[in-house]
Amino acid sequence: MRKYLIIVLSALLVAGCASRNLKRTKIKEFAELQNDRCPVRIDKNNVLDSVSYDEDKNVFVFYYSFDGEFLKPDVQQRLKSKMRETLRDNIVNDVSLKQQKDEGATLQYKFYGNGKLIISETFTKNDY
Question: Max CA-CA distance within the chain?
Answer without folding.
Answer: 71
